[in-house]
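SAMPLE LOG
Freezer: B-3
Tube label: C17
Construct: single chain, 223 aa
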Amino acid sequence: RKDPVAAAGGFFEDGDHIAPLPLSVEVMVYKHPSNNPDYQGAPLGSYFTFDRATFEAVFSFPFPEGGGKFKAIHYRGDDILYKGGFLVTPDGTTQETNIGLIRHPPAGRKDPVAAAGGFFEDGDHIAPLPLSVEVMVYKHPSNNPDYQGAPLGSYFTFDRATFEAVFSFPFPEGGGKFKAIHYRGDDILYKGGFLVTPDGTTQETNIGLIRHPPAGRKDPVAA
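STRUCTURE (predicted):
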């Protein structure tokens, strides 16, 4: 059960799922000298600080000694506020300011600093972008209304090696079914069944023999 049992979110139903919380780094607002309007004028909440060891564990790469850029998600509670570039600087970084020499803790900001999503608040989280496979619309013969009539955009193609790396299983040689999420930007458009076919699959159509690239669709196609 939830703890407490009457926690938010309603009752369980058959077929519900529970899953681990995504690995993330909790951040706290950092009162950076640039929050002083006499210095650079970045409003309070533009910069955050965090635990360096947690950062390295969650993002799976050593903290860049001189600072560095990467892409991540900024979220608060269940709301994704921003997905894009970040810049971090390590603890011990020094900076000359109009109030003297500043020695920073580990700190970060969006890149650019005024990127969308608003300001940071204590207790916000940043998390790695989820692994995913970018897809392109595939002009499948069934997009021909004289053949099967599935509208353009019903089928997609993708890079097979990326698929295998992201889904952590060999591409099914004869094609196969699996469950996944279809999203665009920050919006989840579909969560359910997919069917994929490997590159080299051939198909007799009313326009002759077609040799497909790696291709996929929702299952059923009209889901």
